[in-house]
Amino acid sequence: METRIAVIGIVVSNTDAVEELNEILHEYRGFIIGRMGIPYRQKKMNIISIAVDAPQDVISALSGKIGKLPGVSSKTAYAGG
Fold first, then answer.
1. Between 20 and 30 A from 22 (CA), which of 32, 42, 67, 68?
2. H-assigned helices in 1-81
C-alpha cells in the first residue's frame, strides 16, 4: 500500500488529555518517524510535532482521534507529490 509523509502539529491546552494522547500515539507507533515535544510552561500548554509515514487512511484516522480529544487541536501537513 502506498504511504505518504506528513507532519501533525498538535497543541495541548488541556493537560488532562496528555495521557490519552500518548495512548493514541503509542497505538500508531509503527507509523511514527519522529516526535518532538515542547512544554510551554508560561502558557501551561504543550506543543508536539509528529512526523509519520503511513497510508492516507491511517493518517486520517490518527489525526481524527487526536482532534476529538478535549483541549487538543491539531493540523496535518502533507509532503508534496
1. 42
2. 18-27, 56-67
